[in-house]
Design goal:
The chain has no helices and 3 strands. It is an all-beta fold. Strand 1 and strand 2 form a beta hairpin. The protein is globular.
Length: about 55
């Protein structure tokens, strides 16, 4: 699963880790996050994230 990077602040959503503080379980793909999910650091929406390229 790809990691996704917030274009506003650089926060990285790692599906393997999830976002436990936001109630997102480990193993949750980015695409499965609720539509109203926002970056836990800066508050922008999912549309501001892009897949991390290696």
């Amino acid at each position: 699963m790809n990691k996704y990077v917030c274009g506003a602040c650089g926060y990285i959503y790692d599906p393997a880790v999830g976002a436990p503080d936001d109630g997102i379980a480990p193993g949750t793909p980015f695409e499965a996050l609720p539509d109203d999910w926002v970056c836990p650091l800066c508050g922008v929406g999912k549309d501001q994230f892009s897949a991390e390229t290696n």
